[in-house]
Amino acid sequence: MALVATNGYGGRCDTYCQSFGQECAAAYEESGNSCTIKQTYKCDEAITGTSDMLCKCVGAAPQPITSPPTTAAPASTSQQPGFSCKAFEWQQLHNQANIQVR
Fold first, then answer.
1. Which residues, in sequence order, are bridge partners of residue 59?
2. CB neighbourhood size of 63 (10 A)
């Protein structure tokens, strides 16, 4: 799941996921940049009144093979746009630990 800015995607997780060749599996409004789900939306529903959203994307459904396979180019190693909630949660814990140590 990724924390994503709504601008640039019209507040829609399906648009976000399609931007890198995947399909939307879930869409949420989150609370206070915490990756805590506040409200569930349909993937094609615009999430308005907030600057970010949580999107869960999955690989696109495989297309039927109509010709013999060819040698594929190596998969891209670029990261998806957005911010992983796991990384976000780790950073929050790390920041809290630094505050407590000082």
1. 22
2. 6
